[in-house]
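I am still getting used to backbone structure tokens and would like to learn alongside you. To get us started, please write out a protein record for me. Once you have written the record down, we can walk along the chain together.
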Amino acid sequence: MIYCFCNFDKLTEKQYNKLYNFLPLSRKQNADKKCGIDKKIAILEYFLLKKLLKFKNFPDFSYSSNGKPMLKGYHFSISHTDDVLCIAIASSPVGVDIERIKPYSPNMAKYLFKNQIKAIENSLNPDLVFTSLFCKREAQIKCCDLNMTNIASEINQNFSTRFFKFKSYIICESIIKN
């Protein structure tokens, strides 16, 4: 299940400070490492995830060696861009990514999608196909908890992948099939 939250930039500093004061120490420390919109997202994503998972108390995240937030017994993934925040929750490992539809880049495609260049270029909307492939790759990397240095590598997993178009964005959810 994917949840998207928009216009969180409309919350005031006072509202963010109030939320910040409720954070457990470890989440405050995580938020304090960030600034601007990234700090606001770190605060907001915690509260939204807490609400979505129906926790009464504030859980404490742990982090993988690649920085993926984890909660024992739960599979979730978080992505954001501009003023849109997405949270995916699943019963098995999941990755989500959201990207603004970007212009097709032949140079980037050669690096990332060398076997799919013809399909991209022959499509009715190369920008949409290119962005979708990029979004899929990031979602799969998050799902497998790989480092972003693996972005040009093929990922050998059996995924169930879904795409959604939302405004001028592509959202991709990848779940490892059991």
Observations:
- The chain has a mean pLDDT of 88.
- The chain has two domains: 7-73, 94-176.
- Residues 7-73 form one domain.
